[in-house]
Amino acid sequence: MIVFGGSFSQGLAEEVAGKIGCDLGVATIKSFPDGEKYVKIETPVEGEDVIVVQSTQRPQDENLMELFFMLDALKDQWADVTAVVPYYGYGRQDRAFAAGEAVAAKTIAKHIEVGARKFVTINPHKDHILDYFDIPAVAVDASSLIGEYFNEWELNQPVVVAPDAGSRDMAQRVAGSLGCECANCEKKRLGPGKVVTSAENITLDGNDVLIVDDIIDSGGTIVESAKALRSRGAGNIYVACIHPVFTGNASEKIHKIADELVATNTIQTEYSKISVAGLIADAVKKI
Ligand code: R5P
Q1: Would you state the pLDDT for residue 242?
Q2: Ligand 1 pocket: which of 126, 167, 213 to mutate (most atoms <8 Å of CB)?
Q3: What is the mean pLDDT of each successive set of 10 residues along the chain, which is 287 residues long?
Q4: In angstroms, rounded to a whole number, what is the distance separating the alpha carbons of residues 209 and 202?
Q5: CA 69 from centre of chain
Q6: Cα 227 to Cα 237: distance, rounded to the nearest angstrom
Q7: pLDDT digits (tens, 9 = 90+) for 63-113
Q8: 87 in Cβ contact with 267 (< 8 Å)
Q9: Nearest to 54 by CA among 77, 102, 86
Q10: What's the 184 CA to ligand 1 centre distance in angstroms?
């Protein structure tokens, strides 16, 4: 087996190769002056099982083209390719919310399977994205890693809180691994980065609160939840997510109101202290 990493996922690809105990492949990836991408696979791969690790965060479109070129070039050289996309960009456009809208998550699935024979991702925004693939496709749940991380902390009567009903299942799993209570705020989205949140149904008495979400993008959801929970009597507020998209000054905004911010390394940031490499290694061995 050989693991290749796209330009934004090299560190994670190296870790995955280390966990599997196999080589890291070499590819030349560059951009022409007009912005077009160039990919050349340097390591011989004929007849090999190959993993390509590439998250498709900002710059999404560049990272996607890189991924498509890598998968197809590997297929052209007779490799058996598994695409690992730890963060599935465009995952929030998982269906047409209005007539005529492109279902971006589906279009991307169709392009991935041009070169890949199997697909692995981590906590997609909606699980039904997997149904857009006609190749074996699995989603790995990294929420237990958040539970394990905070198990090392001495939290005071912790409560795990989802910022909205949609993240409740994930919060429940984190609470399960911490052995504590779970609750969720109510969120209404007014527009991109603009939400109103209430926590009227949650009563706290100095309890430490761990807010968990799949994605933090503008940070608006987390900041509004943290404010609501403070007003309900929260003690320390910790924040964790799987995918730290962090647009603009999201992390700074969260730091002003929360005591800790941590994420996984599906997207590499300074807050990505939880590694998903072991989960990916296990998943590709199984699939
Ligand atoms: C939405 O359904 C997601 O689970 C996140 O809550 C959302 O993407 C976070 O966005 P933002 O950080 O911009 O509020």
Answers
A1: 98
A2: 213
A3: 97 98 98 97 98 98 98 98 98 98 98 98 97 98 97 96 96 96 95 89 96 97 97 98 98 96 98 98 95
A4: 11
A5: 22
A6: 10
A7: 999 999 999 999 999 999 999 999 999 999 999 999 999 999 999 999 999
A8: yes
A9: 86
A10: 14
User: Do residues 280 and 258 touch, judged by C-beta distance below 8 A?
Assistant: no
H or E element that contains 147: helix 143-151
**Dihedral, CA atoms, 191, 192, 194, 199, nearest 10 degrees?**
90
| Cis peptide preceding 59, ω within 30 of 0 | yes
Ligand 1 nearest-atom number relative to CA 217? 12
| pLDDT above 70: percentage of residues in the chain | 100
**Residue 75 falls in the annotated catalytic set:** no
Which of these, 171, 246, 176, lies nearest to 210 by C-alpha position?
171
Selected catalytic residue, list 19, 187, 188, 227: 187
Decide if 255 contacts 224 (C-beta within 8 A): no
- Per the CB < 8 A criterion, the answer to whether 66 and 271 are in contact is no
Strands 194-198 and 186-191: antiparallel
- State the pairing for strand pair 237-244/181-184: unpaired
238 neighbors 147 (Cβ within 8 angstroms): no
Start-to-end C-alpha separation, the chain: 13
Ligand 1 proximity of 251 Cβ (cutoff 6 Å): no
Cβ of residue 193 lying under 6 Å from some atom of ligand 1: yes
- Write b or e for each residue in 128-159: b if 16 or more Cβ atoms lie within 10 A of its Cβ, otherwise e: ebbebbeeebebbebbebbbebbeeeebeebb
Ligand 1 in contact with 197 (CB < 6 A)? no
The dihedrals phi and psi of 22, each to the nearest 5 degrees, come to: -130, 180
> Over the chain, what is the mean pLDDT?
97
